[in-house]
């Protein structure tokens, strides 16, 4: 049998990439290991589905259900579900939060922006509490990085 998309070298099956070298086709157990290592291994970074699938291809691996497996793994990852991108963001009406660039950023990520009223301290308290959480998480992730 011949295929223009696949080739067997030795005992291993490879997929021909469009703009990349040959991609080694993996079994289900090999794929599970690669996903786990790329997502949360020593150099893992809990990336999203598209980024994770791209990283798998970039390191030279392929299997037919790659994107579905990445999506399934991320949906089961406790850290990704707990610390993922928020659905809504409550802020005060500070200049930094009503700037067009910030609005564009939120729109690209699919985050609904809820600016609060200045004369409504209950919602401003919620915004301040949310900002505190955001700053704490940023400090945790950035550490002592300056800039």
Automatic annotation (TrEMBL):
Signal peptide: none
Gene Ontology terms: biological process: DNA integration
Entry superkingdom: Eukaryota
InterPro entries for the chain: Integrase_cat-core, Integrase_H2C2, RNaseH-like_sf, RNaseH_sf
Domain Integrase catalytic residue range list: 84-147
Molecular function terms, GO-annotated: nucleic acid binding
Any matching Pfam family: Integrase_H2C2
Stated name of the protein: Integrase catalytic domain-containing protein
Organism: Cajanus cajan
């Amino acid at each position: 049998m011949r295929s223009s998309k696949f080739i067997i070298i030795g005992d291993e099956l490879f997929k021909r990439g469009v703009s990349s070298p040959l991609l080694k086709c993996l079994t289900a157990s090999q794929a599970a290991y690669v996903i786990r290592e790329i997502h949360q291994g020593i150099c893992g970074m809990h990336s999203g589905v598209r980024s994770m699938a791209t990283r798998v291809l970039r390191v030279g691996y392929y299997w037919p259900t790659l994107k579905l497996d990445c999506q399934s793994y991320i949906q089961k990852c406790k850290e990704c579900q707990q610390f993922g991108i928020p659905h809504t963001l409550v802020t005060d009406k500070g200049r930094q939060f009503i700037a067009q660039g910030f609005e564009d950023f939120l729109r690209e990520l699919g985050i609904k922006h809820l600016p609060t009223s200045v004369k409504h301290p209950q919602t401003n308290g919620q915004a301040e509490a949310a900002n505190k959480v955001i700053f704490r998480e940023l400090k945790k992730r950035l550490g002592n990085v300056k800039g």
